Amino acid sequence: MEKSGYGRDGIFRSLRPPLLLPKEPNLSMVSFLFRNIGSYPEKPALIDSDSDETLTFSQSKSTVIKLSHGFLKLGINKNDRVLIFAPNSIQFPLCFFAVTSIGAIATTANPIYTINELSKQVKDSNPKLVVTVPELFDKVKDFNLPVILLGPKRNRQPFDVKNVPKILSFHDLLDLAGDVKEFPHVSVKQTDTAALLYSSGTTGISKGVVLTHGNFIAAALMVTMDQELAGDMHRVFLCVLPMFHVFGLAVIVYSQLQKGNALVSMSKFDFGLLLKNVEKYKATHLWVVPPIVLAMAKQSIVKKFDLSSVREIGSGAAPLGKELMEECARNFPQAVVMQGFE
């Protein structure tokens, strides 16, 4: 039986058909993201598990359009850097997409960073504006940068700090855009930088990693190729992995939204809450890391929830043993348990 593997020439070949990447040079990750939403404008796109707020694909696109104009009015232009320093929320990717849609570069940071750790990234990336949440404001207030505060509409300018040139809420930024229906006319190419993410620094100083618009598009097509082979189904991805990380941002958020899948955002990891959200939102896909797979295999609380909606459990970032995969699969009989790390 023929199977994927290495040939005599040392090249690995898959039995799957070749992946065709778009060749248009003037293609941004955001235009690619929304290319098909005319087929599902009212389908849920972003769901915030903390507030239960839900945005359809049409609403998400309209919000990103407004935010992109808002950023331009704040003086953010092509190749400027914007720091996103916040936990997961549905506002996080909306801001990220708005920044990249105008050719600016998003740099993301771990919300548990100390002021010293964050200062190093700010010095290296040189952002022109910070997007954060009120709970993290004290860590960014001394950078002498304008600040956008994510959160509910009531969170409007709760601070008055001399070192901060301007403080606006997420909703102020929307209002700043006015009544706009189309994205700004900014030339963005696949080869343009979309994001400047940073390595974890476990083996040395944290380093900036450049990702282009084309990188995001290619990754999204690779990650979702199996969905073409599996056929249509209603997919709901629970995103508990951090959006500041490439796994959460590119593999889960961007890749799945561009495919028309729903995304349920969790602001922090809590195992009981994760199980509750799987049951509540009928999540079909859980892409996690080995410690979460271990909990799903070992903890008795798993039996207290209806998890029958789950069809796929994917693990990455570290190896997953065969025995643990099999033990986890017994608690999720309808699901395929797999890993993307070897």
UniProtKB/TrEMBL annotation:
Keyword Ligase (UniProt): yes
Parts of the chain that traverse the membrane: none
Keyword Ligase: yes
Keywords, alphabetical: Ligase
SUPFAM superfamilies according to UniProt: Acetyl-CoA synthetase-like (SSF56801)
GO molecular function terms listed in the Swiss-Prot or TrEMBL record: CoA-ligase activity
Domain AMP-dependent synthetase/ligase: 35-340
UniProt cross-references to Pfam families, sorted A to Z: AMP-binding
Gene3D superfamilies: N-terminal domain of ligase-like (3.40.50.12780)
Record protein name field: AMP-dependent synthetase/ligase domain-containing protein
Species of the source: Gossypium mustelinum (Cotton)
